[in-house]
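Fold it.
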Amino acid sequence: MPDRLHLAIQKSGRLSDYSRDLLRDAGLRIQHGKNNLAARVENFPIDLMFVRDDDIPTFVADGVCEFGIVGLNVLEEFALGQSEPRFEVVAPLGFGRCGLKIAAPDRLDYDGPGSLQGTRIATSYPRLLQRFLDQHGIDATVVKMNGAVELAPRLQIATFICDLVSTGATLEANGLRVVETVLDSEAVLVRTRKPMSPGKAEVSENLLRRIEGVLATQESKYIMMNAPEEALDEITHILPGVEAPTILPLAGRPGHYAVHAVCQESVFWETLQKLKAAGASAILVMPIEKMMM
């Protein structure tokens, strides 16, 4: 079918698993397993392409795939090598969070970016690192490595490293500590700037609405409670991320109301305690399975 979209995701790894979960939550039924290079979605006009993460920006920029899910670190590194952006970031996805960090050996003193002057820094992200150095007016040698960057100081390849950090356990195991943040990253949904046919454009908007609905429910909660009229203003102020709750009179209880609201942020126990103290009762918090914005 000419109006089927193509979406590139990482073939394997954490982003692959999270991306599949996102698409399933959006109601897409994927036909094939993760060992294939492509998969057809049964109930939506879209095909998935399973590729290396650093190939995804190229696929989307060239229009081979209309959409891609990729780490912002990979996307930014690619974009710095282009004369003009041929894609746009549609939405941050809230998973795959990590940071591109500069790390130093524990034994080495560090006193701000000036300590990098004249040193060698090993990284798999030379463009992002060079941008950071240029922003701080630092002249240092960028040593490109494709893997095992954390070994560079031990092998005397470089004094510092610039690498992705999630928990920091790998750095700690290699006697390294974070000293600077180059980029905070997470998975993003990216779309090509190449023109689409009217049919593909319509499918594209339907896909985006579904994904936006999934993202909206990740932190959102539906909360219900009873409250006296004099407590309504304070309760509305306490509810996290609420614009206009639904307020209904309680049958047989003059001056008392049922309050229903979609909270756009997590509802913590501390919030429930504040609501209770404000006069709310019978408070119920429920997850939201689907929501169309």
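Residues 198-219 form the longest helix (22 residues).
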